[in-house]
Design goal:
The chain has one domain: Glutaredoxin (3-Layer(aba) Sandwich), CATH 3.40.30. The chain is 37% helix and 16% strand. It is of the alpha+beta class. A four-stranded mixed beta sheet has the order 2-1-3-4, covered by helices on one side. The protein is built from four helices and four strands.
Length: 97
């Protein structure tokens, strides 16, 4: 199961929407902003960035665009992005970068 680490005002809502559109189960975990950062969260996101997505295999990923691209690739049936090689793919990648 995916775990979405987020906080209000972050780009987490975009990732939350992509996960919902993909129809995959996920747990949303709100990460309060702390000084110093929570060491447990730093193990997931070493730069203390949100959103962070913990993948089912235990790896984590930050950056909303990167997360959304990965979700589109892993769940092509959801139609989150144009297929690789299709005419709209280059524009999609430009918009995401």
């Amino acid at each position: 199961m995916y775990k979405l680490y987020t906080r209000p005002g972050s780009g987490g809502f975009v990732v939350e929407a992509a996960l919902a559109m993909a129809g995959v189960p996920f747990e949303q975990i709100d990460v309060p902003k702390k000084d110093p950062p929570d060491p447990a969260f730093l193990a997931i996101s070493p730069l203390n960035q949100v959103p962070a997505l913990m993948l089912p295999d235990g790896h984590s990923l930050t950056e909303s665009a990167a997360i959304c691209i990965l979700l589109a690739e892993r769940h092509p049936q959801a139609g989150l992005a144009p297929e690789a090689g299709s005419p709209g793919r280059a524009d999609f990648l430009r918009w995401m970068a």
